[in-house]
Amino acid sequence: MRTTQDESEPPLITLTDAPSARAEAVIHEGLGRYNQEKAGYRDSHPLAVLISEPTHSKIVGGLLGRTSLGLFFIDVFGHGVGSLILDRAEREARKRGCTAATLYTIAFQAPGIYERHGYSVLGKIECDPPGATRICMSKKLRLMQLSQVINM
Length: 152
Prior knowledge:
By secondary structure, the protein is of the alpha+beta class. The protein has one domain: Aminopeptidase (3-Layer(aba) Sandwich), CATH 3.40.630. The protein contains four helices and six strands, in the order αβββαβαββα. The chain has a six-stranded mixed beta sheet, with helices on one face. The protein starts with 20 loop residues before the first helix and ends with a helix.
């Protein structure tokens, strides 16, 4: 959509590594509207599991992701209690109706934890640093029964 009166003027294109919160909101809102038109509903929500120091409540790790259109996307994950974080996040994703989870990891980031939790490799892409591989993984999430959701 152009905002200029002169239709022959090309749009201004900006490349940045620090988009404003407003720019991100405009892009997310546009994609959300489009997805709602196509899917018939909109359900994109952030999902975070945070690990804190017990004495100071300082955040020391966790998982950042989102759920949308039946998928749980893991964006950032890290801390020494990985199994607990992953289990908690998957449980919440299932409560939200997600039937699958997906993520990207790098070979040196311990993809074995995901394999131990039932994730399988969808594909691999060589990346930097030299010799490293980015791995796309996925897992089917079985839906929870109503009694399981109530007891959580």
